[in-house]
Amino acid sequence: MLPGRTHDSSYPLEGPEGAICDQHRVSPREEFHRASLGQRPPTYRGSSPTRRCRGVLRAKPTARKIRSRTRTTPRWNPLSPTAAVVLELPDDVYAGVPCWNGKWARWAHLTVGIAYDLGYQRIRPLMCDGGISRKTLILVAAALARYADYRTGRNARPTNRRLAEDTALSERTVQRGREALRLLGLATELLRGRQRTRAERFASWRLGDRHRGWASVWCLHESSWQRRVFHKMSSHPRKGSLLSVNVSFRDKTTTPGTAGTPSAATTKGASRRRRRQEPSQGRTESRQQGYLLASSWLRNARTPQWARKHTPRGWSAILAPLAEHGWTPDDINELMADWERTGGNWLPPVPYKPIALIATMIVWHRRHNGLDDRPAALALAQEQAAEQARIEQRLRDRRAQEESRQARAAARDLVGGPAHRAAQQVAADAAARAAAKRAMQAARDAAARSELVARQRGHDLPGRTD
Fold it and tell me: Same domain, yes or no, for 445 and 353?
């Protein structure tokens, strides 16, 4: 990593998660915890030294087509806004990270402005190298929101230089704006900007891409307390002045159960016909079960990324019949595999209508098997049988280990007893006899060698004179 570079990140200095400049030795998480109103802040799910996110280099389909047609390396245009390669994030990178409530204009001008007015004094001591004004922060937030996904607020990847050109501000001001958004809980840095590796540079150069780094990937959303307040407030406040009677602030801002009732001006006339019939108790419980199944399915590691395009509330309607028959997330994933392999159907990598596709798969499975026949039941039974076999094997190993331990303990208790002393005496006698035999054999060998030496020297030859 080059010295003096921040690589399009809101972390100006290197250090642990939440590290700030030298004049503030306390981490921002601890400062935020001290300054909060007795509530622990939500867990930060962005990129950090303890939770790094690197990504995988992928070539765009258009670049592959151009490469296959020309068979030559395309010329690189530094002014072109498009790139031949893209950094693909892991499937679970957005797990636990919310989306924004509304569109980019509402988030940039309303959500950021409210969060600045209520929380800037708390985060100002945590910011490095100066603060930022409300107007400038909204300007940076609006420029950043233009590059995010229109529906979810995710996948915002502009560089600091690009934002500085769009806002006519300095790059350092843009970095302070991103830092303020992160400390206010309005943005999460999922992938920290970094330089490309040697293999990534070679792979991108072959496709005509001469860029040398990756910009940070951000997800824009509301803070935790804003989500609680926005979801609690009613979109139909009661008529008349809120200050006409003495009521609490909670009664002024929320009107539970009054959105569908007729107003005071129409109580004397005919009652309005309700356009939407209230769901029955059984249907409500079925929807709740479908919601729980959808939540667990979206959190599953095998679930494809395109399924997270919709919320659990959107999936609850079609997954409610599956939840009634005891389906699990593994059953839904196995259903998609059966749809593609057994049924011979085509499963697109990114379906245009994911909910309609899953509904078609459910109808196909119901027509051939029925909902009582769960796709992952056999695999689950095999896993349970294997797990039971492992448990029994561990029990047998533990019993054998216990028997061996008891045998060793019994053998240690016999040490020093009459039988042990008798065995030691027998062993000593056997060792003495073996030693005597070895000594006798050594004496015989020595006598034989002496006789052989004397015979070779001629001492025992008859008739020899000196």
Answer: no
Percentages helix, strand, coil for the chain (3-state, rounded to 5) are 50, 5, 45
Task: Assess whether 218 and 151 both reside in one domain.
Answer: yes
Q: Which domain holds residue 291?
A: 282-375
Q: Which two tokens stand for residue 419?
A: 């039988």
Of 100, 396, 406, 346, the residue nearest 223 (C-alpha):
100
User: What's the distance, Cα to Cα, between the start and end of the chain in Å?
Assistant: 99
For residues 153 and 100, the answer to whether their CB atoms sit within 8 Å is yes
Least confident residue range of 43-47, 125-129, 289-293, 378-382:
43-47
What is the C-alpha to C-alpha distance for residues 466 and 459, in angstroms, rounded to an integer?
11
Distance CA 294, CA 143 (A): 34
- Evaluate whether residue 98 is within a structural domain: yes
Task: Please report how many Cα atoms fall inside a 13 Å half-sphere around the Cα of residue 298, on the Cβ side.
Answer: 24
pLDDT in tens, 370-387: 888 888 888 888 888 899
Angle CA 244–249–255, to nearest 5: 80
Last residue in a domain, options 229, 255, 290: 229
Does a structural domain hold residue 209? yes
Radius of gyration of the chain (CA): 39
Residues facing residue 219 across a β-bridge: 188
Q: Which two tokens stand for residue 242?
A: 């809120």
Residue 114 has pLDDT above 70, yes or no: yes
428-436: long-range contacts, CB 8 A cutoff, minimum separation 24: none
Look at residues 290, 296, 284 and name the one whose alpha carbon lies nearest to residue 323: 290
Contact 44, 188 (CB under 8 A): yes
Strand-pair category, 187-191 with 85-88: unpaired
Dist CA 219 CA 152 (whole Å)? 8
- State how far the Cα of 291 lies from the Cα of 303, in Å rounded to an integer: 16
How far apart are the C-alpha atoms of 143 and 164, rounded to whole Å?
9
Q: How many domains does the chain have?
A: 3
Partners of 142 in beta bridges: none
